[in-house]
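Homework help board

Subject: predicted structure for assignment chain

Our instructor gave us this sequence and asked us to write out the predicted structure in token form, then describe one feature. I got the tokens but I'm not sure how to describe them. Can anyone check?
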Amino acid sequence: MSARTIAVYSLKGGVGKTTLAVNLAWAAATLSSRRTLLWDLDGQAASTWILGHEPIGREASAAIRREVDPRQLVRPTAVERLDLLPADASLRELDVAFHALDKKNRLARLVEDLTGDYDRIVIDCPPGLTDTSDQIMRAADLVVVPVIPSALSRRALDTITAHIQRKKGPKVTLAPVFSMVDRRRALHREALEQHPDWPIIPMASAFEAMTERRAPLGSFAPRGSTGVEAVAALWRRVESALAGLKA
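My token output:
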């Protein structure tokens, strides 16, 4: 099967984007036994931290400019078959770098260079609707969009959808996912009823523990626990969606 790229992206922060990216990368490597790379493109470097590395140096943006081969920056993780392309503070200026380069497919070309080494590439994206997000949309086969069951979060998804529809060229596939769901809240239950086919990632303290444990949920939580089962179910949906895409 050809390599596929999954971006985890949101217009706004605080919606569980990074934990989702790390857990999907874990699922690809562990549940599907695929050679997987998590590319942390968020200047906050949270995925880098969770996967056991320190966000030091300023080489991450140099790789975007092709001053450094991205493959030289790849680091192993404690998860078998899962590597990390770490972020650092230089990515806080990533949008400026993409704008200055004026090469609309730069990220897609860099991803293509990496696909010979991996079966799945998961990108943890910075939030916002910018030149960087446009690069990501052109590079990804599937864009997973975490959505908190709220009007503002749904409005953000609608904004992303409308933005993509205005763009020329191939259209990326969006895969909305309910994130940080608390079924005790009436508003959350109502949102789930409106979109019963969307995958659900529950609100759970175990997800918050990832930053303390510095590991994906599946590396320390029991198999069969609510969080791990939700991640596994989502991953099955992602793999099914990828299988349905044209080569």
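Reply (TA_rk): Your tokens look well-formed. For the description, you could write something like this. The chain has one domain: 4-243. That's the kind of observation they're looking for.
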